[in-house]
Amino acid sequence: MSGHGGLHPAEPFPVAAHEQVGRAQMRANLRNVTGAIRAKRANVVGEMPHWEQLRDLGAALKDDTLADLPDRLLQLERSVQARGGQVHWARDAREARDLVALIAERHAVTELIKVKSITSDEIELNLALEERGIHAVETDLAELIVQLSKDSPSHILVPAIHRNRAEIQELFNTELPGEGQLSDDPAALAGAARRYLRQKFLTTKMAVSGVNFAVAETGTVCVVESEGNGRMCVTLPEVLVSIMGIEKVLEKVEDLSVFMELLPRSSTAERMNPYNSFWTGVTPGDGPQEFHLILLDNGRTNVLADEFGRQTLRCIRCSACLNVCPVYERAGGHAYGSVYPGPIGAILTPQLLGMYDKNANTLPGASSLCGACYDVCPVKINIPQVLIYLRSEANVQKGLTAEALAMKGMKFVMAEGWRFEGALKLARVGQGPLVRGDAITSLPGLLGGWTQSRDLQPLPKEGFREWWKRRGQEPAAASGEAGTSSASKERV
């Protein structure tokens, strides 16, 4: 495990994606689920006549908090402590993991339950706890599927989106105690998970959660979810530890109302999340009697320092951008090599790690720049613009490459018309051996990537510039046409 934890891609995106796109079943699963979520989201968003105003307000609230983040975090710390909670600051994944482990060891905990938390996946918490003899049980159904199969999440909202019912049926029959004869009926599979988890809820002393939002003025922490497992985790155990990325803080309770409308419609395509849990500190005799809030940096202050890239920290982890992205739908979440897949992962992961990471800095290339992600983002992160910005940063990190030299050469050639015309004539002659029929089907060297999946049209015998010159030299058929030609040449 590294200091950054579960963010580091093991290989460049093009390499990982090449392997993943060959998994036909995974692509079919993704296509079915993302298509269904897109359609549902469009319906519930279409009911909101003021949706665009809500997006503007959500973006403004997040930007206001980010502009004053140090003060908001200190205010949150004071508020949590005033209500009986304890606040810890973690500079990186290692510090956050150690804090959770120390709290567990202090209470002699060897098994704890977890609410679905992508932040805990970011720091690779489960693996770190296991190495110290502490078993973490995922209580979200999809996260449980991923954990039992020793897999990794492939979607922010639906971690097991790449698996179908038949695969889950086989997994549960093999891994869940007392099962073995389950059908692939969704109700039967959910019932098996419920039987397994109920005993954990009632006997486990400690729980770990993430944080959707925290309110600085009151110290209130919020978790939203759809299954009720989160509610069980944040109310039944004696000790509760919540790990929060520092960008999740809001200033006032009233700010929550905006995000309680934006988040469910953008994520689960519901008007409201079925379970919305809010707690403030510790209440004697009610709920956990010890509450710890871990404030995680892990690269976020570096993102905050970038005036253009910091808009990425507005993200509320809704996953709407994943569900509309043509690249994600075909490559799947594992191709990104990070717990943050899809368009948001393509800009968040390399910023958290730094653009010097040679695998992470390939992620901004994982996009067609179609702009669909920006259209659906509930807090108006301009993902295509950030992608372009990070691509330029990645090119700086690469230094002087063959591609960069080629681009400099093109710039020189195209800076003067006579150079460009001469280059076209040379290219027309040079393409001769490459033309097969009416197309160039294979290019040599680095250019070969272009023709791996498409043919290239050869340069015509007469290009536009030659045609334009010849047109100006030929006698006009009528005086009106001659006038038009002359005027056109003057404008050019």
Task: Summarize the structure in words.
This protein is an alpha/beta fold. It is built from 22 helices and 12 strands. The chain has helices at residues 13-20, 24-46, 51-67, 69-82, 93-106, 118-122, 125-131, 141-148, 165-175, 186-203, 229-235, 253-266, 300-304, 320-324, 326-331, 342-353, 372-376, 383-398, 402-414, 417-430, 464-473, 479-491, and strands at 86-90, 111-114, 135-138, 206-209, 213-215, 220-225, 239-245, 249-250, 275-280, 290-296, 435-436, 439-440. The strands form 3 sheets. It has a 6-stranded parallel β-sheet with strand order 1-10-7-4-2-3, sandwiched between helices. A 4-stranded mixed β-sheet has the order 8-5-6-9. A two-stranded antiparallel ribbon has the order 11-12. β11 (435-436) and β12 form a beta hairpin. The model is unreliable at 478-492 (pLDDT under 50).
